[in-house]
Amino acid sequence: MIEAFRQAYQWFFNGDPPPAQPKDPHERFVPANGGVYQSRNAAAGPPPQRQAPPQGAPPQAALPRTAPPEEPPPRERDPWDPPVVGRPVGTFAPRPSTAAAYRPDYVADGWATPRFVVRAASVRGYSHRNTGEPRQDDVAVAWHEPTGAVLFAVADGVSDAPLSHIGATSACRAAIGAMTAGLDGGDGRVDWDGLLRGAAWQLCEQARLSLGLPEIDREAAERHMATTLVAGLVRPGPDGPMVELVQVGDSSAWILNTRVPRYQCLTPTKFRVGDEVFTNAVVALPRVPAVEVRHGTMSRDEVLLVGTDGFGDPLGDGDNLVGDHFSDALRTVPPVLKFANDLDFSRETWDDDRTLFALWPYGIRG
Amino acid sequence: MAENTGNLLPVYMVADESFSMNDYIDNLNDGLAQLHDALLGEPMAAAKVRFTILGFSDDVQLRLAMADLRRENKLPQLVARSRTAYGKVFEDLRARIPSDVASLKGQGYTVHRPAVFFLSDGQPTDGDGWRATRDQLVDQNVTRAAPNIIACGIGDVKPQTMLDVATKPEYAFVSTGADLGAEIAKFCAALTKSIVKSGRTIGSGQPELVVERPQNFKMAIDVV
């Protein structure tokens, strides 16, 4: 199906005008030729170009540009270009991150234990690449060898908090540490409430260090480093792999049944069927809400997915092009870099940072 | 949920086309042309906005309907006409916004709460009847897609009137300058920045309506 996407959107990579929107919103693929963008009074033809102001016109406020005035010549499609799902984001050269510390655009990881296969990636969103802001998402994954459990943490720094990328990293690492400590303990259980309180404390302590504060200031930590978090583990069980996880904020988790395929969301998300307009009120660390630990088991046909809203929002209920894209990409375990590349799909207006952890409940030899 | 086509913020520019605007209507048209030009340079933000222009006087004229400004060659011209009937505007928006939101959702878009930028240079000439219609428009129990209204007054507008139009006190502004043409240009510049900044947040984890105060405008609450 990925190849089908590439063929269907070859016009984009050739630099051709975009094809028409499908008349049927349920149409799965945009036709590869003909037509123009739909707009109630737009004339047919290529999109208008930005024009220089007339001589003598008052100077305009300098606004950041998405693309330089001279467009590079169209180039051939590269296999490592992000896959296009529907109408793509416009092409532009990403700006460097303005974060003081090094913050790469892509993080990709993947390995296998005797019982599980893991892939994880975190990619800077097109919007942040365009404005020069750092990737505010992060992910951490670990294997607890004595129990065979795979531990995961996914975090999404709140946009308004200028150091939230540090907060996301701190929360992920604190969560992995807390789960490891729990499994290493006498009863092998994780104190989930303690995990969240510990992650919140770590966030506050990191804020104290980063901001040079004399003592912990929870409000300052929230202003500068607030982040969502989903943390959990999968361990072998007699009835199949057992999943436990907790959630703060709108990062979420799903089970993808690769046989149907179908997505089952395990945690609340922002989308609710019937909402007239989109609303969003983020709960984020260091605030710690009442904790609800979610449990479940997985079958061999299922893949556990844990992701930030940059993945979850375009996925929705999965009955759409994005759902098709991932159900195809994750039907079997992909190479690590392909997993990250698939996560970096291009789809107009969906340009947030994206982070995804995926676990297949079987081992791979070799 | 059907197709998840994208995130959109519907923006309505509601412009006073009363005859008193006759000397300044070119400033307004120029300002909107510059807004268009600026958004062509911000295609990622512009992709998330559908822009409607309504001119009101004795009636409401639809000048531009839910346009993707990246696909417009030129914006239509506003025309100074007759009186300043606020009631007509709110009647129009009461019908138009739910219909527009339903249309966009039918196309699979995730629709964010619409924003109305209201510009007038005069007091309403149709009495107080508009207030009840406006209240219905912004009541989310009546109009589920009730918009945020940002009200900017120039010339003869009273600050209290803008406060009564806007959905929040901090969304009501009045100009302090005597050169109405220059004030209109500042309004358009602020409108442009508001749309670009809001467009950038749409689709992020924390989408928000960003409202820029026009240069030299005061918050109406500070003037009342």
End-to-end distance of chain A: 27 Å
- Distance N terminus to C terminus of chain B? 47 Å
Count every beta strand of chain B, where a strand is a DSSP E run of 2 or more residues. Answer: 8
CATH homology superfamily of the domain at 106-360 in chain A: PPM-type phosphatase domain
> CATH top level of chain B?
Alpha Beta
Which term fits the overall shape of chain B? Answer: globular
- The rounded Rg of chain A comes to 22 Å
H/E series of chain A:
HHEEHEEHHHEEEEEEHHHE
Counted beta strands of chain A = 11
CATH superfamily of chain B: von Willebrand factor, type A domain
What is the helix fraction of residues of chain B, given as a range?
25-40%
Low-pLDDT runs of chain A: 8-47, 50-66
User: Largest beta sheet of chain A: what is the strand line-up?
Assistant: 1-2-11-10-7-8
What is the residue-averaged pLDDT of chain B? 92
Give an account of the 3D structure.
The complex is a heterodimer of chains A (366) and B (224). By secondary structure, chain A is an alpha+beta fold. Chain A contains nine helices and eleven strands. Chain A has helices spanning 2-8, 10-13, 126-131, 164-184, 192-211, 218-225, 309-315, 321-329, 336-343, and strands at residues 106-112, 117-123, 137-144, 149-157, 227-235, 242-248, 252-257, 262-265, 294-297, 302-307, 354-360. Chain A starts with a helix and ends in a 6-residue tail after the last strand. Residues 8-47 and 50-66 of chain A have low confidence and may be disordered. In chain B, strands 1, 2, 3, 4, 5, 6, 7 and 8 form an eight-stranded mixed sheet that branches. Chain B has a single domain (6-223), classed as Rossmann fold. In chain B, 38% of the residues lie in helices and 22% in strands. In chain B, strand 2 and strand 3 (60-67) form a beta hairpin.
